Structures are given as structure tokens and as C-alpha cells.
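Request from the bench team (R.T.):
"We need a structural guess for the complex before ordering more flavin mononucleotide. Sequence and SMILES attached. Just send the C-alpha cells back."

Command: build protein-flavin mononucleotide structure.
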Amino acid sequence: MGYKTQRRRMFRTCLSFLAAHNNTLQSKARLLPLLNPNSPMSAGPSPAPFDPTDDPDEGLCADLDGCSLGDPSPPLPSLLIRRHLSGQVLVERAWEHWNQLGAPKLVVAPMVDNSELPFRMLCRKYGAEAAYTPMLHSRIFTETEKYRSMEFTTCKKLSGVKWCSYGIVELLLEIQKHFEDNFLISGSTRTKVLVLKPYRGVFRSYKLFKTFGDRPLFVQFCANDPDVLLEAAKIVEPYCDYVDINLGCPQRIARRGNYGAFLMDNLPLIKSLVQKLSQNLQVPVSCKIRIFPNLQDTLVYAKMLEEAGCSLLAVHGRTREEKDGKKFRADWNAIKAVKDAIRIPVLANGNIRHMQDVHDCLDYTGADGVLSAESLLENPALFAGYQTMEPTKDSSYEMENGVILDQSDLAIEYLKLCEQYPVPWRMIRSHVHKMLGDWFRIHPQVREELNAQSKLSFEWLHDMVKRLKDLGGAPALYGNGDIKSRAKANGVATCIS
Ligand SMILES: Cc1cc2nc3c(=O)[nH]c(=O)nc-3n(C[C@H](O)[C@H](O)[C@H](O)COP(=O)(O)O)c2cc1C
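Reply to R.T.: structure attached below.
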């Protein structure tokens, strides 16, 4: 699918958001048939160009079987009795919560149509320590069951371990392989100690500091009405670790709908959104912001959010006007200044293309973690240390001593996850284009064939990937020696079920 087609699809998805914000009968008549073909408002002449029921890409790739949400989880102890906390206590609770989640540093950024469950699971397997859902529209979420079930899916929360040493994971793998049911892992979330009883009766204890499955999870909403936002947030709070407010979307659709970065013109409204959630939810509220052109404005803004009850702040170091991430570098100085000015955990967003960027960004800004978006779409194994090989003087050394990951294998893994966790075909199409972009540049005829498929199937996609592999020639992802065990380690983690 060409870039323009993708933009058109994205635009069509966004139209539903726009429709929800225009309180006219006409916009509702467009919106409801879009989201719920059985709605009484869908009767009468339908606005054909906006009706996704005509478009196979809008359908789910498999049945959800009514299990899209996993189990609701009880709140962590740090979350109880949060109401009317203020100042220092809120900050302490914010850190307590963050640390209970294992202080995740490597985070999948929110991406409309792109940070959906199977993609999150793929990134988690390859090193991501937390993830955001795509932005959900709070009003549509409260009004439309079909929107909820199609756009928000997650899965069971699993307890597991993240080991201090990757060598230990190798050991665990071996034990698992040979003894399967004959070895015992038990753990206590209270003491945060895990007991591993391997064969020969030797007990060993390790620190337990992570939960698995689709957690930690930020569920992101856009909103401009505190009551509606709270209603939407209440639905998801048993399934997530933060409810996040999108204060950074710079698109025209957000301007017209009055949400995202356009709320920066109305800070009292932002304050009321944050306060409403922080005083009425058990899970903490987080915010994702863009910076103002003027640093002082950014700092006043960040402090206001903290005082209003925000427990974690993700700072995208670009202004509302700097929409094109490839054209404008994110301003790490501004992120550093925010981190220095407030006391809650801060995540840095922008310019993260590989693990060296992660280290540089954390060192430079002092942030508590990073978000990555566009680079992860091309390389979901980024957080496991893989990167595309740029020809440098070290390339030959890396090729001899490093490990190689084939992007087509990642695409296959993603497709399998989609079979397990169904999503609309449009999302799969978008990911396949991004993950196999390098291959398509070499074999554009295969891309054309994909674009020509109005109705996709897994069989067709698997076959397409196989044909691409047979044609060969695309650059692989490379990593240094310790990467393999790291990816494997995360693989083990997601498999404990
Ligand atoms: C396809 C796509 C969809 C996005 N959707 C969202 C979204 O739903 N919510 C949000 O806060 N930001 C969204 N963003 C912005 C990213 O989260 C991130 O802030 C931005 O891309 C900068 O990070 P990067 O430099 O790593 O790409 C999106 C970005 C992309 C590329």
C-alpha cells in the first residue's frame, strides 16, 4: 500500500473522531453507521465513502471470541485511597507505582492504528518494558460497544520474572526444556521474591520485578470533557496501569475536534481533565505532551500537570507546529529541563532510533525512560538492541560477530500474533508495509501485488513473505553478541502462561 493510501485510511479512521466532536445530527449520522451498522441512525441514505462495512480492511482478521480484555486485575497497593492526595504524597505514590511496575525504561509509544495488541506483544518480546495503546476517542468509547471491542483489546496479566542476569534465563530455558512440569516456580508479589526449585531439590531465590502479558499498559484517550473522560477511563482501569491523556496530537483533525495539542490553548481545561481522573480513578493518570516554543511556558505547563495529579509525564520534545518527526529533531534540552523541574517520573520522546539513542537520551535528559514510535514500526526489535546495518568501518566486524534478525521473520511473528489476538486488517496491512519496507523497495512488484489485494488473508500474506524471502536481498537487522539471550529472555517471559 502506498503512503497516500495509508494516509487515506488513517484519515478515514480519524473522520470518526472528528464526527464525534461535531455535535450536529449530520456528523452523528455519519459516525454511528461507521461504528455500529446496527444503529437506528444508520437507516436512510448512507454516506458511502465513510462506511467501513464496505471495506474488508475494516473487518477483524479473526473472531474475538468474546475474550478481548483478559482478566481485570486488582489495584496495586500503592493505588488504594488516592483521593484528595496532594503534593509530596502524590509524588511519593507516583514513584511507588512506577517502581512496582519495575520502572520500565523502554516504552512503545502510542500510535493510532499501530500500537495495537499484537504489535505491543511483538515489541514486548523484543525488549519493550511497557506500552501505550493507540489513542482512543473517549466519547466514542463510552457510546459505542463495537468501537470498544474493536479498538481496545488486551490480554491476561501474567506474573513472571525478569532476571538480573541473562545467563540465568538460559539456565531456566534448559530446565524448562528438560523437566517441564517437574520444576516449580513460585513467587510472592508481596515480598517480591521468587523461588525457583530446580531439579536436585536446590531452592534458589531471585527478585521478582515484572509482570507479563500485555502489562505494564498505558491506555490513552483524547478528550475535552472531564466527565466523559472519566466514564471512559473507568471502563479500562481494571485492565491497565495508567490512564493516559493525549495532549500532543498536532493533526488538523485534533484542531477541529479540540483535543490533543490544541488543548494547550486552554490549560484550565487540561487541568480539569487531569484532576477529574486523579481524584476519581484508582489507577494513576499520565499525560503525553508536546513542548511550547518557549521553554518557560513548557515548565509552567509541566508543573501545572504535576500539581493537578498527573503521576507520569511523557514529553515529546517537538512543538505542535513541528509535525514532521523526520524534519525536526526533538529538543532533548527541553525534556531535560522538564525532568529537572518536576518530581514525578518523566519519559522522553523523540529521536530514538536504536539503543545507542536510548542510552544517550537517558544520560543527557536524566529521564526515567524513553518512548519510541516510528523507528519501532520499521524495527520492532529495536529495544532488544537490533538495528539496521549502516555501512560503517565496523560493519564487517559486526557481521562476523553479531547476530542477525531477518525482518521477514519478524513479520511472520507479527502475523501469528494477529491470528492469536485479532485486529482489523487495516492495522496488519500498515505493519506489513512498514516492517517489510526495505524488501519492498528492492522488489516493488510484490508491494504492488499487496496493494492490489482488496481482501487480505493470512494465507496470502504468509505466502507473500515466503516469496519475498525467495527473491532475497533485503538488509537484515544486526545486533551485538548479548542480544540473542536478551530477546530469548523476553521470549521466555511472554511464554510463561
Ligand atoms: C503512525 C503513528 C501514530 C501515532 N499515533 C499517536 C497517538 O495515538 N497518540 C499519541 O500521543 N501520539 C501518536 N503518535 C506520535 C508518537 O507517539 C510519537 O510521539 C512521535 O511519533 C514521536 O516519536 P518518534 O520520534 O519516536 O516517532 C503517532 C505516531 C505515529 C508515527
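Two things stood out. DSSP finds 21 helices and 17 strands in the chain. The chain has four domains: 3-58, 77-153+216-385, 163-208, 388-485.
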